[in-house]
Amino acid sequence: MKCDPDRMIESLIKAQLTEPRATDSADAAAQSRQQKLDTTVVTISRSYGALGHDIAHLLADALDLRCCDCAILQEVAKRANVDESLVKVLDEHVSIISSRYSDQDDHWWKRLINRYSFTHEDYQDYLAKTILSISLHGGVIIGRGANFILGEERAFRVRLVGSLEKCAKRVAERDHLSIEQAVEKVQEVDYERIEYIRKLYDADIDDPLSYDLIINTDRFDRIQVAALILEAMKKAGYTLPTDAFESISATA
User: Fold this and answer.
1) Share of the chain above pLDDT 70, in %
2) pLDDT band with cut points at 50, 70 and 90 for residue 113
3) In terms of C-beta density within 10 A (0-12 exposed, 13-18 middle, 19 or more buried), how is residue 96 classed?
4) Mean of the pLDDT values across residues 188-213?
5) Does the N-terminal or the C-terminal CB of the chain have fewer CB atoms within 10 Å?
6) Residues 87, 77 contacting (CB under 8 angstroms)
7) Higher per-residue confidence, 92 vs 110
8) Is residue 223 assigned to a domain?
């Protein structure tokens, strides 16, 4: 049975983010907004080859925050008390579980999941709890639909995109592939990410209303993109470290 992402996430938010009760609704709204700005959380959704990983780490350094990627899976495994390899299997295959294969299909990763009775609903549950926990302390969170879990009230949500041509060129240079191989890789990974978001959150990864800022990285390098994000956050009311922009420029 497919779980309802909105209902599950809302229940987790209520359980994880307990806030003092305010007597006045206006004061409560102001308190909520100030907490959002004081505890900086940035979510990075990215097309494959759009410099997402590099930019996320630049932002984390500039904002003096933890950059969370693989550590998310480690924390999910810890919270669920299962082996990290099992969580990685679910993370990699969640987009095709229950869609391209039936229960009778005999794939090694399905046998592993069944053996430990850890479903993709369990994965989603612990993933949401982990991301909500990270949001309490601040951080730059890469991928995994964190923007859909946290929403506009708890994170500054960024989407980094690029043309197939530009993204494939970067991937080809980085991974020493031919352009043809790189194009195929970009298309494959982007499709998996689209399906991942659709499967877990019943959402469209490219929905512009799910982000506060969308940047086409075709015309900018990683330093320029990071600076654009910082500038947008500043205009949105976030208090940045005094040396945030200088920190990014120093890496050029």
Assistant:
1) 73
2) very low
3) middle
4) 91
5) N
6) yes
7) 92
8) yes
Domain membership flag for residue 106 = yes
**Contact of 162 with 225, CB cutoff 8 Å:** no
- What does the CA dihedral 225, 230, 232, 236 come to, rounded to 10 degrees? 160
- Distance between CA atoms of 232 and 196, rounded to whole angstroms? 28
H helices, E strands: number in the chain: 12, 5
Residue 13 lies in a domain: no
The letter for the amino acid at 225 is: V
Side-chain-facing half-sphere of 167: CA atoms under 13 Å: 22
Q: Model pTM?
A: 0.77
Q: Which two tokens stand for residue 90?
A: 């679910």
Does any domain span residue 23?
A: no
Candidates 6, 192, 186; CA nearest to 95 is 192
**What is the mean pLDDT of the segment spanning 90-114?**
50
Taking the C-alpha atoms of residue 61 and residue 41, their distance in angstroms, rounded to an integer, is: 13
